[in-house]
Design a protein that fits this description.
Layout (H helix, E strand, L loop, with lengths): L2 E5 L2 E4 L4 E8 L7 E7 L6 E6 L6 E3 L7 E6 L4 E6 L8 E8 L12 E2 L3 E6 L1
Parallel strand pairs: 2-11
Antiparallel strand pairs: 1-3, 3-8, 4-5, 4-9, 5-6, 7-8, 9-10, 9-11
């Protein structure tokens, strides 16, 4: 049974930091591209970041470039999103997703999804 479980969300002040984690099980994590998406209230879900199966390449949405860093640990079946210099507009539910073989910024291309973790940034 495939599972993606996000953790690490919470309430933080603007300019603060959070680190999201996603624990994967039920599939061969090390051959999957992993990504983070987010959905703010009243808005469509949007791509945040992705990382290739071996961590060799990562992509970021322009809105988070330079502030967020994605990483993975294939030995632990985990992917992370380090979020620095948070802004109120980063407030959203953050989702972990998996696909193979190649990376994509499109929601429709991802096969597996977590339930999401709430990130709230106060001004």
């Amino acid at each position: 049974q495939v599972q993606l479980v996000e953790s690490g969300g919470g309430l933080v002040q603007a300019r603060g930091s959070l680190r999201l984690s996603c624990t994967a099980s039920g599939f061969t994590f090390s051959i999957y591209t992993m990504a983070w998406f987010r959905q703010a209230p009243g808005k469509e879900q949007e791509f945040v970041s992705s990382i290739t199966y071996n961590g060799g390449k990562s992509d970021y949405a322009d809105s988070v470039k330079g502030r967020f860093t994605i990483s993975r640990d294939n030995a632990k079946n985990m992917v992370y999103l380090q979020m620095n210099s948070l802004k109120p507009e980063d407030t959203a539910v953050y989702y972990c997703a998996a696909r193979r073989p190649v990376t994509s910024t499109l929601r429709k291309d991802y096969n597996y999804w977590g339930q999401g973790t709430q990130v709230s940034v106060s001004s």
